[in-house]
Amino acid sequence: MRAVIQRVSSASVSIGGRTVGAVGTGFLILLGVTHGDGEREADYLAAKCAALRVFRDSEDKMNLSLKDVGGGALVVSQFTLY
What we know:
It is a single chain. By secondary structure, the protein is an alpha+beta fold. Helix content is 21%, strand content 48%. The strands form 3 sheets. A 3-stranded mixed β-sheet has the order 1-4-7, with no helix packed on it. A hairpin with a 2-residue loop joins strand 2 (11-15) and strand 3 (18-23).
């Protein structure tokens, strides 16, 4: 499993002019999955993403996680990562 993670204030995916997914503050995750990947790898990657401390705290330091800010994640399949 491979992921490219971008911190966003908002992101959305549209198909044919219709929004099919959206998120406010949080992550846009482009996710590549291959044959040997399973539930164990998915659980590990999800926990790791949620724990990344890349959001600013009250002292303007990047010290808060996705959980801390109550953010969301928009995950988009991206097979070309492999």
